[in-house]
């Protein structure tokens, strides 16, 4: 049963975050279109307000995603009756989000796979610092994902 839940969750979260990444890409493009209609002075005047709105939007968006992850983890717990397994799949959903969502947004915006998001997001600030130290962002994103997958497989097999 756990193997099917694991495979199903991996497929679900990958698809979920591809669609969510495409949604966020369109949001960014929409903001760019709106800002392109303004003069430089108008853009400068509203720059801070736009950042505050984006942060507020990201807060509510993150809350929505967190509740979705928690709800799915609770369902997995009730199906499998294994708290550790449900917790590991919750952690895996976070890892998949960081990897798939950010890559989908970068490619959707046409910025390539090396793109790192805006400076006002803490995780992107961290990735920039690590990149400047010579650590590739995908190493940072893949290591926890691979470790979590190994832990899930180990937990299932014991």
Question: Any overview of this molecule?
Answer:
With 158 residues, the protein is an all-alpha fold. The two termini are 14 Å apart. It contains five helices and no strands. The protein is elongated and about 65 Å long. Helix content is 85%, strand content 0%. It has one domain. The mean pLDDT is 90. Helix 1 packs parallel to helix 3 and helix 2 packs antiparallel against helix 3.
Write a brief caption for the model.
The protein is mainly α and 158 residues long.
Secondary-structure map with pairings?
Elements: H1 2-36, H2 40-80, H3 83-108, H4 122-132, H5 137-157
Notable features of this structure?
158 residues, mainly alpha, 85% helix, 0% strand
Mean pLDDT reading: 90
Calculate the terminal CA-CA distance, rounded to whole Å.
14 Å
- Main sheet overview: none
Give the C-alpha Rg: 18 Å
Q: Strand pairing plus helix content: what structural class? A: mainly alpha
* 3D shape: elongated
- Given as residue ranges, the uncertain stretches (5+ residues, pLDDT < 50) are none
Count the DSSP helices.
Answer: 5
Bin the strand percentage.
Answer: under 5%
Count of extended strands: 0
Count of spatially separate domains: 1
Helix and strand run: HHHHH
Q: Report the helical percentage.
A: over 70%
């Amino acid at each position: 049963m756990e193997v099917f839940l694991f495979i199903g969750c991996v497929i679900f979260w990958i698809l979920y975050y591809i669609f969510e990444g495409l949604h966020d890409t369109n949001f960014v493009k929409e903001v760019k279109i709106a800002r392109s209609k303004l003069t430089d002075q108008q853009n400068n005047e509203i720059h801070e307000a736009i950042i505050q709105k984006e942060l507020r939007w990201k807060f509510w968006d993150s809350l929505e995603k967190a509740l979705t992850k928690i709800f799915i983890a609770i369902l997995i717990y009730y199906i499998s009756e294994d708290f550790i397994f449900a917790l590991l799949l919750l952690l895996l959903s976070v890892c998949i989000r960081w990897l798939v969502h950010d890559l989908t947004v970068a490619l959707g915006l046409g910025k390539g796979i090396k793109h790192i998001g805006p400076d006002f997001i803490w995780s992107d600030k961290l990735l920039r610092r690590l990149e400047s130290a010579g650590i590739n962002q995908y190493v940072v994103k893949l290591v926890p994902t691979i470790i979590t997958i190994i832990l899930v497989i180990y937990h299932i097999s014991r």
